[in-house]
Specification:
The complex is a heterodimer of chains A (about 500) and B (about 160). Chain A has about 500 residues and is mostly helical. Helices cover about 75% and strands about 0% of the residues of chain A. Chain B is mainly alpha-helical. The longest helix of chain B is centred in the N-terminal third of the chain and has 27 residues. Chain B is flat and about 55 Å long. Chain B starts with a helix and ends in a 15-residue tail after the last helix. Classes of the chains: A mainly alpha (about 500), B mainly alpha (about 160).
Chain lengths: ~500, ~160
């Protein structure tokens, strides 16, 4: 199957029209704070009832791809990542747009996303037969290490203070323990509320921690500035700057897209983990690691390329294993199963036409995103010109209704409130939010896989290293833990001066 | 201030850890399972305590070296006004959760918007205009376009 043959499958007026509308829809929904990629796809489900399988697949793929990119838009403009995949580098993109470069930052992110997505689907297309073979041998041991690796990365890429990153991560993990436990089915920390048995659902948690905490901080900010003070570059200049930035960083895009695809392809690790790891790797190899987290374009490009590549990669475990890489793919695979697709190691034999149509739609959606995403970036920056008194109440009501719409329960609004207050307290304490979000996402995956592995091994912990792939992943994770421990100990022994001064700069610029 | 803040943070994290350990003692164990539902809460509680110790040590060191004294230097609005706005927004969220099923989303959304606009520095006129416009737009996006099921509350008799 070559690229042109793939495109030929999807180059019909009906599919073209569907992909065009869905990239536009995905971009708008993804750009709206509080409306996530997951929600965009969930709201699309009723419409896919009226579509044939290929069209339904194309619609979902196009919406996901653009919504994941568009999450960068609200991240850069309002510091509210539209999707968890944009959380890794939101600090950088927000500060870049605060310093007068919202458009060029977003166009750089768009170019990185498009190229990342195309690389992702290309790799996926050629590698799926091989990965089908590899995934057959995947067990809970590997899945456990993978999630543990993701968590360790959260501490590695968080703020400058290791104890504070740890605090954030464990707060997130504590939230993840709410609900029925996997070992014996006992409700934990639910306070008798039956609706909490499923755990704290992720979307209201995200909205509360990122949207409400920001609204609360804006409310405290008072009246002295009634407008978001941001300057927007002219479109032409922004495009040229972005093209230059992208050209200078093409190696990063190549590296992050390749890595992102493989991370996305592993079950349990989706676009968010890919973005975190790409960001951490990028900082490690950068010439200016100290600039990360303070408005540096490199991390934004790396993360942007990785998460869109991972979106393509996430379909591998979904298709060949029936295990979705993330919540979006979970919905998507549900829809495709209703359309008659049977995920499994034999999917390339049984449903090859549909599988290749999915690849083709990915390719098409990524190319189309260049146009529709660019359009939305050009228009979305108009949001900056809207007075705060108009914008903030709208975000408030959208955040609450968005949280409610997913579950149809007011519990979502209470979760938004509680986690919004928690996040405000964390910001006051100078504790970063991002590790907590990852803790909420991955906490359950770590525990589920740990319990399954221990049940099989009858409590023998060495079993986690008994398998080849698991042993390698475990060794990497333990190495990262050792580095973190060393860094923490060293910071207590070495002079405290840089630590304190870094904290104060963050305090000042955050206001 | 930073040291005091770090002590408060350390105490809060420790309190959360103690609560988790105390609660997890009541979790059932099954003999066939090598590890029970209390394992992860206990590990997490241990992590929280370690983080709390780290933060307090960091605070003590910063206080001794005189760093981080600039953190309160930025200009902030009068405390009572800031606190009022903060509580106001939080109360709006709580109020919306309580009133959404009773009043329906049109009225509840209108109320939230009318009250939120002044908190974010808008005029009364703007509040009233937005209170009228926003529910109509929300109705169109969520109800007509996306077909999300939203409660109509008081307006149920005229729902369509």
């Amino acid at each position: 199957m070559d690229l042109f043959a793939l495109l030929a499958v999807v180059l019909t007026p009906k599919i073209l029209g569907t992909v065009f509308l869905c990239t536009l829809y995905g971009a708008f929904v993804g750009a709206m704070p509080g409306l996530t990629a997951t929600m965009a796809v969930a709201l699309l489900v009723p419409f896919t009832w009226f579509m044939d399988p290929v069209q339904a697949a194309a619609a979902i793929v196009a919406t996901t791809t653009t919504a994941i990119f568009a999450g960068d838009i609200s991240g850069a403009v309002l510091k509210i990542p539209g999707t968890p995949a944009s959380a890794a580098y939101v600090e950088d993109s927000y500060r870049l747009s605060q310093s007068g470069h919202p458009r060029s930052t977003l166009y750089s992110a768009l170019f990185a996303s498009v190229v990342g997505g195309v690389i992702g689907v290309t790799i996926l297309m050629f590698a799926t037969p091989t990965l089908t073979y590899l995934s057959r041998n995947f067990s809970s041991d590997e899945a456990f290490w993978l999630a543990a690796l993701g968590l360790s990365c959260a501490v590695l890429v968080g703020g400058p203070s290791v104890p504070r990153n740890f605090a954030s991560l464990f707060i997130g993990l504590a939230i993840a323990t709410v609900g029925i436990d996997v070992a014996v089915g006992h409700p934990r920390f639910t306070f008798g509320n039956v609706e909490l048995y499923d755990g704290v659902s992720f979307i209201p948690a995200m909205i509360g921690m990122f949207a409400l905490s920001e609204l609360l901080r804006n409310a405290v900010g008072g009246r002295q500035s009634s407008r978001l003070r941001l300057t927007v570059e002219p479109l032409r200049e922004a495009l040229l700057t972005a093209a230059r930035q992208f050209a200078a960083l093409w190696k990063n895009v190549l590296r992050s897209a390749t890595g992102g695809t493989f991370i996305g392809a592993l079950p349990g690790a989706g676009a968010d983990v890919a973005a975190w790891i790409a960001y951490a790797v990028s900082r490690r190899f950068s010439r200016k690691p100290e600039a990360y987290g303070r408005g540096h374009i490199e991390g934004v490009v790396d993360g942007g390329a990785a998460n869109n590549a991972a979106v393509a990669g996430a379909w591998t475990p979904a298709l060949v294993f029936g295990i979705p890489g993330d919540s979006v793919t979970a919905i998507a695979i549900g829809v495709l199963m209703m359309k008659g697709l049977t995920p499994g190691p034999d999917v390339l034999n049984t449903d090859s036409a549909l599988v290749y149509a999915i690849f083709g739609s990915f390719l098409l959606a990524n190319l189309m995103m260049l146009v529709t995403g660019g359009l939305v970036v050009a228009m979305a920056t108009q949001v900056l010109r809207v007075p705060r008194a108009v914008l903030m109440p709208i975000i408030l009501i959208l955040a609450m209704l968005g949280g409610y719409a997913i579950s149809g329960s007011t519990l979502a609004i209470w979760i938004i409130l509680v986690l919004g207050l928690l996040a405000s307290a964390m910001l006051w304490a100078d504790i970063p939010l991002a590790p907590a979000i990852l803790g909420i996402v991955l906490g359950r995956i770590v525990e589920d896989n740990f319990m399954v592995s221990m049940l099989k091994a009858r409590g023998d912990l060495t079993e986690f290293f008994a398998r080849d792939i698991a042993a390698v992943l475990g060794a990497i994770t333990l190495t990262i833990w050792a580095i973190l421990l060393y860094r923490a100990l060293r910071s207590f022994i070495a002079p405290a001066k840089p630590q304190g001064s870094r904290d104060t700069t963050r305090d000042n610029t955050d206001r | 201030m930073p040291l005091k803040r770090d002590l408060v943070v350390g105490a809060a994290l420790t309190a959360l850890a103690i609560f988790m350990i105390w609660q997890s003692q009541g979790f059932p164990r099954i003999r066939a399972m090598p590890y029970g539902p209390d394992l992860f809460p206990r590990i997490i509680a241990g992590g929280l305590i370690l983080a709390a110790i780290g933060i307090v040590i960091e605070g003590l060191r910063n206080a001794r070296s005189g760093a981080a004294t600039l953190s309160t230097a930025t200009s902030t609005p009068p405390v009572h006004y800031a606190a009022l706005s903060f509580v106001g927004v939080a109360a709006l969220v709580a109020g919306f959760a309580l009133l959404l099923p009773v009043l329906g989303f049109h009225i509840a959304a209108a109320l939230v918007v009318v009250l939120a606009v002044p908190i974010f520095g808008g005029s009364l006129l703007l509040a009233l205009v937005m209170g009228g416009v926003v529910p109509v737009v929300l109705h169109y996006i969520f109800y007509s376009l996306m077909r999300v099921v939203l409660p109509w509350g008081l307006l149920t008799p005229i729902a369509w």
